[in-house]
Amino acid sequence: MLEVFSDYDSVIHYEFTPEDQTVNKELYLEILKRLRDAIRRKRHEKWVTNDWFLLDDNAPPHRALIVKKYLARHSITTLEHHPYSPDLAPADFYLFPRLKMKLKFDTIL
């Protein structure tokens, strides 16, 4: 599975998780830690001013108590993704079209 985090400009962080691995609350927490580090390195101006937010879906790992505590402890602003609103998924408008263009002439086996 591919976990992707982006802003209006480009992809900030991505990770591949093994096919047989479920993204549970512990794994998602570790991914968030690496995301924060990526923001610190790649979007330092946003990091310094804490001028960024996280939009994820309502998957159980995203709503787990340990994740919520981590987000609160690090003052990470989150936006609620309305349930059953696939039309509001940013990946549909930003990520997938770009991936499609890049993969247009590649063969995936």
UniProtKB/TrEMBL annotation:
It comes from Araneus ventricosus. It comes from the Eukaryota. Gene3D superfamilies: Ribonuclease H-like superfamily/Ribonuclease H. GO terms for molecular function: nucleic acid binding. This is Mariner Mos1 transposase.
